[in-house]
User: Which sequence fits this backbone?
């Protein structure tokens, strides 16, 4: 699967488990007062409770380098949006028809992690690896929300490709954003059943962020593999955490 899991810091395990079970049909693999592991089809969500969390420096601006959001494929976006609205979940972007002929929406989990729902198979403007695209489309419409990607804003696409290439990722495809005057492009690095969705902005200055392991929300991606090409920045539980070139944090399963 390449991406084994996504690690999230939460302040209330029961509340977060209820959120992901209710709105994502996630299945509980294990749960205690301090930790839960949820099945999201192609990867797990690992929830770790934190006491006295630090204030997060993550902001919902795609010009901040590093982590942007966690994306899921769905086949019933409108029904899920209605349920999210009924539950009072805060939205970042109401549903729109986006480039690539898909419908998307963005909202926040109880601890501020930005989440995306995507309905429909992406029609890529550029295809660099036809086999990977066919495998992506071959997953079909999900019966329940399926983890699909983690998005990251980067400064240099070539450096990003080189870094994650060491973890088995290759450039699969791209989507242009012709209406965005900041030079916004999306490229997809693929390995296994999920992607790294890479944002670049050639005509806009981007901000950096110091890695955080003790704030609520997204912590790290857990990749399959044995060696980590990034810089070690600390630990999450008993796992060493590394930073990519633009501050996306990750762990490697067997490193």
Assistant:
């Amino acid at each position: 699967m390449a991406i084994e899991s996504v690690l999230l810091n939460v302040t209330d395990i029961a509340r977060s488990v209820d959120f992901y079970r209710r709105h994502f049909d996630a299945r509980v693999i294990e749960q205690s007062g301090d930790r839960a592991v949820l099945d999201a089809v192609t990867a797990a969500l690992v929830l770790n409770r934190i006491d006295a969390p630090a204030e997060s420096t993550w902001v919902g601006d795609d010009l901040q380098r590093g982590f942007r959001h966690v994306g899921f494929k769905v086949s019933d976006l409108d029904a899920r949006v209605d349920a999210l609205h009924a539950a009072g979940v805060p939205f970042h972007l109401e549903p729109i028809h986006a480039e690539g002929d898909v419908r998307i929406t963005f909202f926040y989990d109880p601890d501020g992690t930005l989440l995306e729902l995507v309905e429909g198979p992406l029609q890529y403007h550029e295809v660099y690896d036809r086999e990977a695209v066919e495998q992506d489309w071959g997953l079909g419409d999900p019966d329940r929300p399926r983890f699909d990607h983690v998005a990251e804003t980067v400064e240099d696409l070539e450096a990003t490709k080189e870094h994650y290439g060491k973890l088995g990722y290759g450039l699969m495809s791209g989507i242009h954003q012709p209406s965005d005057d900041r030079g916004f492009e999306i490229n997809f690095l693929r390995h296994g059943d999920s992607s790294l969705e890479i944002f670049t902005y050639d005509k806009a200055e981007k901000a950096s962020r110091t890695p955080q392991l003790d704030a609520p929300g997204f912590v790290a991606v857990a990749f399959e593999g044995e060696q980590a090409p990034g810089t070690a920045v600390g630990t999450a539980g008993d796992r060493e955490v590394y930073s990519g070139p633009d501050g996306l944090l990750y762990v490697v399963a067997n490193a």
